[in-house]
Amino acid sequence: MEYAKPLPGYLVQRYHGWKATSYKENEVWYRRLATDGQHPRAMVVSCCDSRVHVTSIFGADQGEFFIHRNIANLIPPYEDSGNRHGTSAAIDYAVNVLKVAHLIVLGHSQCGGVQGCIDMCEGLAPELEAKESFIGRWMDILRPKYDQVANIKDRAEQARELERQTVVVSLENLMTFPFVASAVKDNSLSLHGLWTNIGEGGLECYDPKQGRFHQV
Amino acid sequence: MEYAKPLPGYLVQRYHGWKATSYKENEVWYRRLATDGQHPRAMVVSCCDSRVHVTSIFGADQGEFFIHRNIANLIPPYEDSGNRHGTSAAIDYAVNVLKVAHLIVLGHSQCGGVQGCIDMCEGLAPELEAKESFIGRWMDILRPKYDQVANIKDRAEQARELERQTVVVSLENLMTFPFVASAVKDNSLSLHGLWTNIGEGGLECYDPKQGRFHQV
Amino acid sequence: MEYAKPLPGYLVQRYHGWKATSYKENEVWYRRLATDGQHPRAMVVSCCDSRVHVTSIFGADQGEFFIHRNIANLIPPYEDSGNRHGTSAAIDYAVNVLKVAHLIVLGHSQCGGVQGCIDMCEGLAPELEAKESFIGRWMDILRPKYDQVANIKDRAEQARELERQTVVVSLENLMTFPFVASAVKDNSLSLHGLWTNIGEGGLECYDPKQGRFHQV
Amino acid sequence: MEYAKPLPGYLVQRYHGWKATSYKENEVWYRRLATDGQHPRAMVVSCCDSRVHVTSIFGADQGEFFIHRNIANLIPPYEDSGNRHGTSAAIDYAVNVLKVAHLIVLGHSQCGGVQGCIDMCEGLAPELEAKESFIGRWMDILRPKYDQVANIKDRAEQARELERQTVVVSLENLMTFPFVASAVKDNSLSLHGLWTNIGEGGLECYDPKQGRFHQV
């Protein structure tokens, strides 16, 4: 493996700064985390997007959240084919091994993956339709929800709505996992759906009874 | 989807605290990020583990890192079967759409997924061998590297070495992606392998020439 | 005193969040409390246990409860030896200075101190028997009640019963304080015994006539 | 024990409200806390004063802080006489059993116990000098620090300074506990001293190098 490079200087510097300050001030906690293992109370599934940091919004410190980040915070439907599924493995680990109490799906505004899905559903992104497009095949998880937003004329509004649907479809797909459904039903796991507006710092929570999101 | 619950009170409180402080102080930047989109300089692939926050170690602000977090920071080999692959979709997006300059794989100590892989390779975890075990099938990505650590007698030492190998196998698998290999060869993308020791706040960088990690 | 460290970052962040939200919204009340002093209606004696917050269960706001928290919410018998007694000082202050109207003792399930007492009474905890064991000597307050639960075969049931007895022995010991007994008899102070089940969110109140606890 | 009364109606109502809302929304977490036990990261020693809620200021949820509350957040010097010491028992439990990572002493403004100590040191409170005064004998822990504030003419300023000294004397006395000193020296426990101004919502942290408190 000949291609790995040294760490860029600006990151080396930042690391040493963190080591001398944050690490040093919290050394007791870091050593404790290393010896005692992790016992996070919640798992969060959020987007890879560089603008959304769940640790920031919720002031979460090391040890609090088990965080899986993928494109558009999507959870695929359960499959028992024996194939390799990264998101399913993360959920398996969080629910069955760490036994988290909460599983939070966090969607966000201005999601590139969602925009790509809209373009794909409207025939405007042939490259995503290609069989070998990883982004396209991943966004197929969201396709079934496109109908819900197909008639929204305002393009920004439409994207916002489909972003909220990433949370809804992920929650629905979560319930197709037998071990998730049974943990939810016997009250050892609760699910939560959130959507954040990056520019406004807003946060909405999904209310299944009303079938819509409300400001937190 | 009837099972979603309201956001737990302690997170509502923390969110409002963040909104009134961090968001308020940086509102200009958040609005800029919303309108201009994300232009992260680097992608980081790290573990879901609650104890490892790349944003913390590198003092990264919103907009800096495109972050994919999965079990044991593993990247599978390239497959063009047209199936759905979350990690591959994240790499596709980062390299082809965002055109990040750096792709960093960050492994860590006390990784539960790695320990699970060791147990599986030693026949001590039949539940992971089961076809329908998501964790087991995901950790299969790392299996080929078990031979490199099989003879290390000290159990902790063995786990540390295999954790470093999650980074090596991920870098190797990255190079099987045609678009990654070509971006690396024409110098538009550089790869980096890191491993952090949680308790000691240590950070090591992979040097492919020497085939080992060095303290940063 | 060279060993004090800066406040951990996660608490600094949370404090600033509280200052900008809760404090700001209630600033008038906080300033009133500072100038007018405290006039709590009730004193609560509860356990240090991190899972039991009387302010939470009773939705108590700043200024409502004078709260003394110690191991296993125990009140020792009155002693007039002139030695230093923290719990007695707290009761002295609440009854004679603040003149609270109610004194509530709140016990809880899964109390570590109570389990330690059971182990000690059964000869299973030599370290607690040691003269210099603070926990052991503090739990001696509860020893006299062990006989009441000695024959309960179910270990969990036994612990739950002895937890309820922490409340009973504390109420009995309270009445050995002359100033408490006289305030109770002339109706200027009423005593209450409660026990809460953490997992079920249950609350029971002690009825001395029946010598048992009833669901609230 | 004939003197326990039913729970006052206003508290019964508040309890039922909590049960139907907070408890219900977080039921999964409460059940988890009951079965898994408590693993608080920090112990806090604060005053019984009704106006100071550390859970509020730090947005702490159930399971986070092990909280010991006594008069004026005082920790007495270590004694190995085999007598009963409530505060020492709480510290023993937190450090040796729960193995908390942080021990925070939180003092506050307008502390009645501190004012009582000033009056006592100035000969203005004969009732506190009496041998059987629990409050007086408890505040003896703080007496040695009176000299540091004896010459401050402004009465409010003097009280504020002696309140800060409750934190300093407590930290000093903490270090006389052998198990605390050794945990601090081998980096498995860190100590922190804080003082909060109730009316202003302010928070200061003790810096031993400079021997003074700084705004957080």
TrEMBL record, chains A, B, C, D:
| Keywords assigned | Lyase, Metal-binding, Zinc
Q: Which reaction does it catalyse?
A: hydrogencarbonate + H(+) = CO2 + H2O
Pfam families referenced in this protein's UniProt entry, alphabetically: Pro_CA (PF00484)
UniProt: Zn(2+) binding residues: 47, 49, 108, 111
Q: Which cofactor does it need?
A: Zn(2+)
- CDD domains from the UniProt entry: beta_CA_cladeB (cd00884)
Q: Which InterPro entries match?
A: Beta_CA_cladeB, Carbonic_anhydrase, Carbonic_anhydrase_sf
Enzyme class, broadest EC rank: lyase
Q: How is the cofactor bound?
A: Binds 1 zinc ion per subunit.
Q: Which GO terms describe its molecular function?
A: carbonate dehydratase activity; zinc ion binding
Question: Matching SUPFAM superfamilies, A to Z?
Answer: beta-carbonic anhydrase, cab (SSF53056)
Documented EC number(s): 4.2.1.1
Family designation: Belongs to the beta-class carbonic anhydrase family.
Know the name of this protein?
Answer: carbonic anhydrase
